[in-house]
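Quick question, first post here. What does this chain look like in 3D?
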Amino acid sequence: MAPAITMAADVELSPANTGFMLICSALVLLMTPGLAFFYGGMVRVKSTLNMLMMSFISMGIITILWVLYGFSVAFGADKGSLVGWTSDFVGLSGIDKGDLWLPYNIPVLAFMVFQLMFAIITPALISGALADRVKFSAWALFIALWATIVYFPVAHWVWGTGGWAFDLGVIDFAGGTAVHINAGAAALGVILVIGKRVGFKKDPMRPHSLPLVMLGAGLLWFGWFGFNAGSWLGNDDGVGTLMFVNTQVATAAAMLAWLVYEKIRHGAFTTLGAASGAVAGLVAITPSGGAVTPIGAIAIGAIAGVLCAMAVGLKYKFGYDDSLDVVGVHLVGGIAGSVLIGFFASGKGQSEATGVFYGDHSWTQLWKQLAGVGGVLAYSLIASAILAFILDKTIGMRVTEDEEIAGIDQAEHAETAYDFSGAGGGAAKTSAAPAAAGAGKKVDA
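> Answer (accepted):
Ran it through. Tokens below.
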């Protein structure tokens, strides 16, 4: 993320940068419905709507919190290297339409709304680990508290001038630590508190709609160009273009690497593997793409694809129920992409910092990356587990066992994703149905 926290009203606006950032903001917002489809297809039929809603509700709750105080905490003036605060940002009350975010000459409001889309999708990522078993009301309260206590401060650490990770020199172009490690560690913290699904490791829990999974992965891939390339805030020095190229390259490499690993390990090239591999590559290149060459991006994508494919099976070995592999893909992929900067940073992208394989072969950047990864991971894991524990002991985090078995969609939303008794369901007939193709016989209602 390109640093800039200065407001001014006396500098000329860049219409090109502004338009670009608004388009990128819309692309990043599209990623949340894409995530909803990706997760929604991966669960069983009885949990489809709940999975969609766990992403969609983030678009409502986080938007309001971001406007009220989240933007101020994340990008306001630094307070002790841990949080930001600028009273003019509270409720956006002190921001004029002519105030610009420098040195990119875009309106403060354009930067604010772009960052809002990151704040929306990050808690939504956590939801995949909790599929089938969490009360919707408890989830809504959890993400409100989590964003306030975890995401907003961590965003300041990584991207806000004065944040400790920012000042240390940790490279995170678009969210390897602030988004993916943050969400993945939070997912692990929560599932360790709330426990496993009924039937975990006993009942089949296969994806009910792989076409939905592929649709979601495609929307994520498309929107991720705004997520990544947009994070250079429209600056035309070529870094944003490099990030765009590396996003495509790493994603392709990760998808192929996952499929090859899957074929060797399990004997088949699966559509779920292709979709998951692509997401793993997108995750890994998010922190690193502005600092590496396209060859480095291929290496990072391929490494992340294999590591994440290996990691998704760890839940069965260690007994934690990460329903849709948020830990395996987002936490592991985020760690891989962030740490590999310490090896593949070329010094020719967003900064002059070089990794072990370039320049003077210094290990300095690697240690910085490890510090950033460790700090965010530990804080998010512990804080998220504490939040989940408090909510579980007060309002309760889980639906009842009977509700989980019957289906969380009906229990929490009084709806089902598919009406099997209606048209095309084969369960109902009507004497009033018109003749089919002149055959004179009744058809399904």
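The domain at 12-406 is CATH 1.10.3430.10 (Ammonium transporter fold).
Confidence is low (pLDDT under 50) at residues 425-445.
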